[in-house]
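Worked problem 6 (solution included).
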Amino acid sequence: DTEVKSPNGHVISARITAENAEDGFIPCGGCLRQLNFRSSKNIWGYFSVHAEGKLHKHADSQFGHLFSWGHTREEARKGMVLALKELSIHGEIRTTIDFLVNVMEHPIFLKNGSHVEWLDNLKDEDNFFNKPDIK
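Solution. The predicted structure is:
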C-alpha cells in the first residue's frame, strides 16, 4: 500500500524560453555569454544550456524551467518574481523573463483572476512590455 498525501502548499513554475514576447513570441537563437541562477530551499530550476552555449532558433525555444514553492500562492508568487528578477542571462537571445514578471505582478494575476483570454489581451495594455523595476 502507498500512503496518499494531502496537497501541501503551492508551486508556481515558469518556462524560460528564447522568444521575443514583444514580437508575438517569435523564437530566436544565438550564443549565450552568461547564465546565472541560484537555487534556494524553495526555489529551484534547471537549464538545458550553459553559459557560452548556443540556442538554435529552429529548435524548441524552452531552455529552462523554474519552480517556486510556498505555503500560500502569494508566497510562491513572490519567490518566483524574485527568482526571475535575479536570473541573469546575457547573449544574443531575447527571453520572456520580463513578460513573466509583468504577468505575475499584474493586479489581475495578484487577485487570481487570470485566464487565457486575459493573457491574449495583455499585449494591448500600455507599457505592459516595459522592463519591470528591480526591487
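Discussion: The chain has four helices and eight strands.
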